[in-house]
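quick one, 162 residues, struct below
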Amino acid sequence: MTRLFASIAVLCAGCADLTMPASDDGAVAVASPKAPAPSAAEPTKPAEKRVRLDREERVGASHVLIAYKGSRRAKEGIDRSKREAKARALEVKNKADKGEDFAKLAKEYSDGPSAGKGGDLGMFGRQSMVKPFSDAAFELEVGKVSDVVETEFGFHVIKRTK
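---
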């Protein structure tokens, strides 16, 4: 009897690559080999399905950042108070609402690293920016300008571009 169990164990050890699905009545169907695992050289998905993000999950925007002393990553030399920064951001918002060129406003007023590019941030996903900024940018219609948005970096005026 122990020889029988030893023989079965040897036979079953080679069955690791087989599946034996059971039918509804509990009977075991004929074993069939599992599909081989894809090699590193083989793509696991068709190329047309390998899309990083759906376009609806990304937006394009420009912004003007008005930093204040103590705000996160404020440049050395910025000594305006939080109240002064907010007033300056409201000034930018009012000028943008009156139709002034947003890129020129960014170049003139923004303390952010994108100021030289007219505030252009390019396309980004919701998780790429801090939540208050993303929420405002994703809510805007293309071409519209946000109200003043506060983050730990300061006060932003955001224009949705794409």
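The first strand starts at residue 18 and ends at 19.
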